[in-house]
Every structure is written in structure tokens, then in C-alpha cells.
């Protein structure tokens, strides 16, 4: 969702066993860049629903959101102000089927190996590195802080 130059994004680190899923994007602003499954929050959409929807659209996987690493505010490479809500999800169903037009590749990687990505290989390296640091340090927050009515009120105002 974009309102007054601000883009709201939901992003998810998907875990299965001891590995996390990374995707290689094929979007105009991020060709051949690694990222966590993510996308814009649609107008009036619940943020938790948006996160699960984006995961399903990009990967074919169903997830249960179990925690959050935080909210990240930054200026993107396309000069948009982005507020990114990042969650941790566990696979509950579906099968890995990448969105053909927007995702080139994927790989399951140990959390400790996330730090080996070079900045030029990541979509928004400063933000992705912050998320990776929070994952490594297990700086996690309850998803219960995201109340549907609060988010809907913000989106509709």
C-alpha cells in the first residue's frame, strides 16, 4: 500500500527445521536480488493476513506467524519511504512453487549462514542485515501486538 509517498510492506522469514527460505527476486527494482518473501499491504488489509498472503503468492507455502523481528523504516533504492513489518513464520502446508514472473530462485539456508550474503546480492542490504541480526540474536516480539482493528484504523485514516 502506498499513501502520501509511504509504502507499507509485510515480510516473512519462513522456517522449516533449522533453515530459513530466501527468494531471488525478478522485480524491476530488484533483479537477481535475494530477499525474504514480502510485498505491499493492500488498502484495508489486515497486516497479518497480508504477510500470509504474500508468502502464499510468492512461494506456494502456507505459514503460521509465530513472532516478529520488528518494524523497519527506511528509504528504498527507488526513493520510497518504506515501513516494513517483518515476521517469522513456520510452514503449515502447501508446497514450494515460486511465482514465475517475480521470483527467479529460492534456497533454504541455515540462519547462521545468512550473514554470508554480500550487500550487492540483497534487495535492501541495510534492512535485510538488520533483520538477519535480529534473527541471529533471537530479538523477537509477539505477533499479538498487531491487533486487526488498530491496523485497519491506521490504513483507513
UniProtKB/TrEMBL annotation:
CDD domains: NUDIX_Hydrolase (cd02883). InterPro entries: Nudix_hydrolase, NUDIX_hydrolase-like_dom_sf, NUDIX_hydrolase_dom. Pfam families: NUDIX. Residues 5-133 form the Nudix hydrolase domain. It comes from Bacillus haynesii. This is DNA mismatch repair protein MutT. It comes from the Bacteria. Belongs to the Nudix hydrolase family. Keywords: Hydrolase. The lineage of its organism: Bacteria, Bacillati, Bacillota, Bacilli, Bacillales.
